[in-house]
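Question: does this match?
>
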Amino acid sequence: MVRQCIRRREKMFTISGSKCGCGCLKNERGELCSRVKEIWDEMVEVCEARSCEELKDEVSDVMFGFGRLLGYMCGRVYVRMWFDERHISKIEKRFKETGCVRSKRHLVNDMCPCLVSEN
């Protein structure tokens, strides 16, 4: 399960007991607009959903976005929200497969974009 690190100032998640070092899940100053934009983009995808399962996935993505926004406002990475389990399961699976929580279409040469920009 994705969990907020115990120390409040820590800016990383833990995924299944290990720190998520990819850097894609962090909340830093000045990211308020990006948090709101992420929620808007996911809400558009909710409107475009073509099946009940796809709708559930997109609603879970929206709820995860709200959890990130609320976390930003509280000085945390994330605040657990209702119906975000699907999204959390999805990012846990991605992290185990690629070492990054983002989807394959966002990876750069099969690597986390945060790790690529550090090199």
In short: Strands lie at 2-4, 13-15, 18-19. Residues 1-12 have pLDDT under 50 and may be disordered.
